[in-house]
Specification:
globular; 16 helices; alpha/beta; five-stranded parallel beta sheet
């Protein structure tokens, strides 16, 4: 499927009265949630034998799109004692208004999943309330900033407990619960929870990685990774080098041009850009629903395929880049040597030498759970793919083995049997789950399939933890359906009296 390029040129103007229409739609979505809430009772039995302080049933690390959707889905299942933690300010969770630079999402507008089966909660309903039905028909891709506006609106309807500007710096078991260490403007205390969801997005399995040759040789003022906020205004008049070939590389290059840069050179080692997007193949329901049931070798090789056969940049980004006279694209151009001469970056390549004033590395994620601050102290206990599966020599991959080998519902498993059974109470709903679970935790289109699975795992474990109360609670249930006195009267009356009535 080729990507229409016209969406980024569309002029979208909110309708008169759009804010009122969105408020009305929010009221409708709330009513729809209430109408579909049965059975709506909170059913998780509070813990009574823990240390002083509130214990949440579930804490979710990350309040971006995945965290919000999981939080609302739990709420609909009667698990409301939930807290979300996010390091960003309120309304800026996730990448959309922080470091993402694409004009439109790569996901088609027909995506579903966030709305949890409720049409009034869908991005289509939101978009049409803001811009009108005719505008929805004109677009193919959802504008990035509109997706963030939609998530802010969604957050208001979900009405979840969220703490912002808080860093999670570690997790450790404490009897029947887990303790989360926090820091930052909104942290500094211990958050206690029975279950934890790690919804930390694309870098959930490691860190955004700048190549060692760059970080070793250049001062921090001369380089950055593409997937962090960049003050583009200070790049005016500068020569920019971009290392990488994916969407984030092209987005960064194109975003730099309006800042008034002198030039941008985009370099990558491949002889040519990929032209086929294998991620489009993924979008069929049986695969996304049942991927976890595949054998280890198949799952490993599916993930390996997507690591080796990367997707191309979006067509509209590529077309714009080719049309920009200040942006030059260099294939078969790996950087062999890099140096700082005191005022500029010197780069030696197979295509000649370059001089840059600033370098942007669009070089993805370096895997390794030990690099994740929220997993400090427990990463060594988590089973990895390298612990559970050894691929054939011709199917090996140096990085995939560093990702966690997860259970059926995204839960961590222990590396050594009996060493850390409490890990089953922590659910990795982020990109680190890709090999184990498929692309259903960070992909917008995948949430429809991944969210029910992780929620089922959480509710199942909470329910089974209180299974000892099921029979006593049933036997103690004494809520009358009819008047007890009337029932007694009829039970004691002679047959002839009952017949007379």
């Amino acid at each position: 499927m080729t990507e229409p390029a016209g969406d980024i040129h569309l002029s979208l103007t909110p309708l008169p009265g759009a804010e009122a229409a969105l408020a009305q739609l929010a009221d409708q979505a709330s009513r729809d949630l209430d109408a579909l809430a049965h059975p709506g009772a909170d059913w998780v039995r509070p813990l009574t034998d823990t240390a002083p302080g509130h214990v949440y049933d579930v804490a979710i690390v990350g309040a971006g799109q995945a965290g919000l959707i999981v939080g609302l889905a739990l709420k609909r299942e009667g698990v409301r004692n939930v807290l979300l933690l996010d390091r960003n300010p309120a309304g800026y969770e996730g990448p959309w208004d922080t470091f993402a630079r694409m004009e439109v999402l790569r996901t088609p507008k027909t995506l579903v999943g966030a709305e949890l089966g409720i049409p009034s909660l869908s991005v289509r309903s939101w978009f049409q309330a803001r811009y009108g039905a005719e505008a929805w028909q004109r677009i193919t891709w959802i504008p990035r900033r509109d997706w963030m506006r939609y998530l802010r609106w969604y957050r208001g309807i979900a009405d979840l407990a969220i703490r912002n500007r808080i860093e999670v710096t570690g997790i450790e078991p404490a009897g029947p619960i887990l303790e989360i260490r926090t820091a930052g403007e909104g942290g500094g205390d211990i958050v206690r929870a029975r279950r934890i969801v790690i919804a930390t997005g694309q870098d959930g399995g490691g860190v955004w990685a700048v190549p060692g040759m760059v970080s070793r040789e250049l001062p921090p003022l001369a380089y950055t990774h593409s997937n962090v906020p960049i003050d583009l205004t200070r790049l005016a008049g500068k020569r920019i080098g971009v290392l990488g070939h994916g969407g984030s590389a092209f987005d960064a290059a194109l975003a730099a041009l309006p800042a008034g840069v002198a030039s941008v050179d985009l370099c990558f080692r491949r002889p040519r850009l990929p032209v086929v997007n294998p991620h489009r193949w993924l979008e069929w329901s049986a695969f996304l629903t049942h991927y976890r049931e595949l054998d280890d070798r198949t799952r490993w090789n599916v993930a390996r395929h997507f690591e080796t056969e990367d997707q191309p940049p979006p067509r509209h980004a590529f077309d714009r880049a080719c049309a920009e006279p200040r942006l030059r694209i260099h294939g078969e151009c790996p950087w062999h040597k890099i140096a700082w001469n005191g005022s500029a970056v010197e780069v030696a390549t197979d295509r000649g030498r370059f001089a840059f004033d600033y370098v942007i590395c669009a070089t993805g994620v370096r895997y390794g759970l030990e690099q994740r601050p929220e997993l400090a102290g427990i990463a060594d206990d988590i089973a990895l793919w390298s612990d559970r599966y050894t691929p054939a020599a011709d199917e090996a991959h140096p990085e995939l083995g560093k990702l966690p080998y997860l259970g059926h519902h995204f839960e961590f498993l222990e590396k050594r049997p009996g060493g850390a059974p409490w890990l089953g109470n922590i659910f990795a709903f982020n990109f680190s789950a890709f090999v184990s679970m498929g692309p259903v935790s960070t992909s917008i289109t995948g949430h429809r399939f991944g969210v029910p699975r992780v929620v089922r795992g959480i509710t199942s474990s909470l329910f089974l933890a209180q299974a000892d109360a099921v029979l006593p609670s049933l036997r103690d249930f004494a809520e009358p359906e009819i008047d007890p006195d009337a029932a007694t009267m009829y039970a004691a009356a002679p047959i002839s009296a009952i017949a007379a009535k």
